[in-house]
C-alpha cells in the first residue's frame, strides 16, 4: 500500500515557489500545517467550517478552503498562500481602494481574487459576484472590495 | 484540529480501493471512503465520527471521468461540483450544483461525496433521480450497475465496503426544458429551505425535492397530482403535498409550517413555468 501505518506521513509540496518536505499526521488539517509548521500565518482561521473563506489558499491554481483539506492531500501539489502574493496587482488594488478595515478576511479575498484572475482573466461582473460569495467580511468592507476587484479586472465601477 | 489519528490510503485503481477497504475493515479500522473530505473533516473535527482509516478515491481514473460516450454522459464520483458546472454537459445538474455551498467549496465537494454524504440535503442527486441515471458501484464482488431510482431510497443503498464509481445519464435527458429553484432563509449561500428541480418530458412534468423532508426524493404520486390538469393548480398542490414521503423538516433553516408555505409557492412556480414551455 502506498501509505504508512505509522502516525507520520511524509508530504512533499511546493508553497509560494519553495519546495517543502515535512512529516504530518494523516489527520492534520492544511490550514494549521501552514500556520503552525511552516509559519505561514497569513491564512486565517475564521470558522474552521468552510463558511468564511479566511483560510483560502490556491492549490494548483484553484481557491481552496484550507480548513477543509488534509495536509496529506497536497502531496506533490503546488500551493500559493497570501505570503506569495506580495506586491501582486490584486494586493495593490486592495491597498489602493482601502478594501479592508480590520484586515482579517483580506488574505482570503486576495487569494480568491488571484485564483479568479488566473482561471478566468476576463471574468464578468456576475462571475466575480459568484466567486466573491465564498468569502465573508465581518467589517462589511464589501463596497471597497468590489471596487478593488473591478480595478483588477478593469471593469467600470 | 482533528482530535484523533487515522491512517490515509490513496489507491490508484477501483480494485485496490475495494481490497484495501476490506483489509482495513478486517483489521477493525472502521474505514471510510474519502472524496472531497469536506464532510468527513468537519465531522471528525467535531468528534462526531471516528474513522481509523480513510481511503481517498481521488486518484482513481474512473472516478475522475467526465465524457460523452455512446450517447451517455459519464461523470465520475470524484468530479468536483465546480468542474461539472463549468463543463455544463447537463445544464440542470450544473445549475443544481451551482446552488450548493459556494464557489470555493465547490472546488472540493465532489458529486459522489454530495450524493453519499450524511447531511439532509444532498442536492446534486435531484437531477440524477429525474433523469433515471444509472450508477456504477464497486465492491468485493466486482462492479455492478443500478438505476439510481431503485437504490437511492432516502440514502444511497450501498452494500458493505461498496463505493460509487460514476454516474451514467442518457443524452435524451440532458437538454429537456427544466427549472431549478433553491429557496434559502437568507442570501445566496447556504442550506435550502426548499429546493425543487424539475423538467418536462413528453408533456409531463417531473419534480424532485431537497430540504422538504430529511432526505432528497422524487415521488410518482406527487408528479401524478401535479400533472392532473383537470383541476386548478392550487388544488393539485394541496393534493400533492399529501404524498410527501415523510414529515416536513423542522430545523434551524426553517420551521415545518414555513417550509410548507415555501414549498407550495415553489411548486406553483415550477409547474406554472414548465406548463408554458
Ligand atoms: C460551506 C458549505 C456549504 C454547503 N452547503 C450545501 C448545500 O447547501 N447543499 C448541499 O447539498 N450540500 C452542501 N454542502 C456540502 C455537504 O455539506 C458536504 O460537505 C459535501 O456534500 C460532501 O462532499 P465531499 O466530496 O467533500 O465528501 P466527503 O466528505 O469526502 O464524504 C462524505 C461522505 O460520503 C462518503 N463518500 C464520499 N464519496 C463516496 C463514494 N464515491 N462512494 C461511497 N461513499 C462516498 C464518505 O465516506 C463520507 O461518509 C456544503 C458544504 C460546505 C462546506
Ligand atoms: S476558516 Fe476556513 S472557511 Fe472559515
Ligand atoms: S476587514 Fe474585517 S473582516 Fe473584513
UniProtKB/TrEMBL annotation, chain A:
Keywords: 2Fe-2S, Iron, Iron-sulfur, Metal-binding, Oxidoreductase. CDD domains: fer2. Residues 9-85 form the 2Fe-2S ferredoxin-type domain. Gene3D superfamilies: 3.10.20.30, [2Fe-2S]-binding domain. PROSITE patterns: 2FE2S_FER_1 (PS00197), 2FE2S_FER_2 (PS51085). GO terms for molecular function: 2 iron, 2 sulfur cluster binding; metal ion binding; oxidoreductase activity. PANTHER family: OXIDOREDUCTASE WITH IRON-SULFUR SUBUNIT (PTHR44379), XANTHINE DEHYDROGENASE SUBUNIT E-RELATED (PTHR44379:SF7). This is (2Fe-2S)-binding protein. It comes from Cohnella endophytica.
From TrEMBL, chain B:
InterPro entries: CO_DH_flav_C, CO_DH_flav_C_dom_sf, Diverse_Substr_Oxidored, FAD-bd_PCMH, FAD-bd_PCMH-like_sf, FAD-bd_PCMH_sub1, FAD-bd_PCMH_sub2, Mopterin_DH_FAD-bd. The keyword Flavoprotein applies. Residues 1-174 form the FAD-binding PCMH-type domain. The keyword Flavoprotein applies. One of its GO terms (molecular function) is FAD binding. SUPFAM superfamilies: CO dehydrogenase flavoprotein C-terminal domain-like, FAD-binding/transporter-associated domain-like. SMART domains: CO_deh_flav_C. Keywords: FAD, Flavoprotein, Oxidoreductase. It holds the Pfam family FAD_binding_5. PANTHER family: XANTHINE DEHYDROGENASE SUBUNIT C-RELATED (PTHR42659). This is Xanthine dehydrogenase.
Amino acid at each position: 500500500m502506498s501509505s504508512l501505518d505509522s502516525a507520520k506521513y511524509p508530504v512533499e509540496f511546493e508553497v509560494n515557489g519553495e519546495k517543502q518536505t515535512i512529516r504530518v499526521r494523516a489527520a492534520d488539517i492544511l490550514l494549521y500545517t501552514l500556520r503552525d509548521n511552516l509559519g505561514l500565518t497569513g491564512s486565517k482561521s475564521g470558522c474552521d467550517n468552510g463558511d468564511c473563506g479566511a483560510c483560502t489558499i490556491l492549490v494548483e491554481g484553484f481557491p481552496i478552503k484550507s480548513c477543509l483539506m488534509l495536509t496529506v492531500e497536497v502531496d506533490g501539489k503546488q500551493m500559493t498562500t497570501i505570503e506569495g502574493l506580495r506586491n501582486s496587482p490584486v494586493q495593490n488594488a486592495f491597498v489602493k481602494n482601502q478594501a479592508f478595515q480590520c484586515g482579517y478576511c483580506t488574505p482570503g479575498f486576495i487569494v480568491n481574487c488571484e485564483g479568479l484572475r488566473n482561471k478566468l482573466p476576463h471574468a464578468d461582473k456576475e462571475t466575480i459576484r459568484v466567486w466573491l460569495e465564498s468569502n465573508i467580511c465581518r467589517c462589511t468592507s464589501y463596497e471597497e472590495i468590489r471596487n478593488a476587484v473591478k480595478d483588477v479586472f478593469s471593469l467600470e465601477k | 484540529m482533528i482530535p484523533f489519528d487515522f491512517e490515509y490510503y490513496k489507491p490508484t485503481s477501483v480494485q485496490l480501493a475495494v481490497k484495501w477497504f476490506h483489509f482495513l475493515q478486517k483489521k477493525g479500522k472502521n474505514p471510510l471512503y474519502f472524496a472531497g473530505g469536506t464532510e468527513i473533516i468537519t465531522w471528525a473535527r467535531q468528534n462526531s465520527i471516528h474513522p481509523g482509516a480513510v481511503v481517498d478515491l481521488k486518484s482513481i481514473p474512473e472516478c475522475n471521468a467526465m465524457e460523452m460516450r455512446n450517447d451517455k454522459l459519464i461523470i465520475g464520483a470524484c468530479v468536483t461540483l465546480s468542474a461539472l458546472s463549468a463543463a455544463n454537459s447537463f445544464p440542470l445538474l450544473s445549475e443544481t450544483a451551482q446552488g450548493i455551498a459556494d464557489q470555493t467549496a465547490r472546488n472540493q465537494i465532489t458529486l459522489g461525496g454530495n450524493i453519499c454524504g450524511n447531511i439532509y440535503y444532498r442536492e446534486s442527486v435531484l437531477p440524477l433521480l429525474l433523469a433515471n441515471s444509472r450508477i456504477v458501484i464497486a465492491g468485493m464482488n466486482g462492479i455492478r450497475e443500478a438505476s439510481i431510482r431503485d437504490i437511492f431510497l432516502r440514502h444511497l443503498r450501498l452494500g458493505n465496503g461498496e463505493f460509487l464509481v460514476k454516474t451514467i445519464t442518457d443524452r435524451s435527458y440532458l437538454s429537456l426544458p427544466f427549472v431549478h429553484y433553491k429557496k434559502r432563509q437568507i442570501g445566496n449561500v447556504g442550506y435550502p429551505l426548499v429546493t425543487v428541480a424539475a423538467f418536462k418530458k413528453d408533456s409531463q412534468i417531473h419534480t424532485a425535492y431537497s430540504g422538504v423532508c430529511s432526505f432528497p426524493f422524487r415521488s410518482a404520486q406527487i408528479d401524478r397530482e401535479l400533472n392532473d390538469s383537470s383541476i386548478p393548480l392550487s388544488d393539485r398542490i394541496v393534493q400533492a403535498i399529501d404524498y410527501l414521503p415523510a414529515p416536513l423538516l423542522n430545523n434551524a433553516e426553517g420551521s415545518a409550517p414555513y417550509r410548507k408555505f415555501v414549498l407550495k409557492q415553489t411548486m406553483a412556480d415550477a409547474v406554472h413555468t414548465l406548463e408554458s414551455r
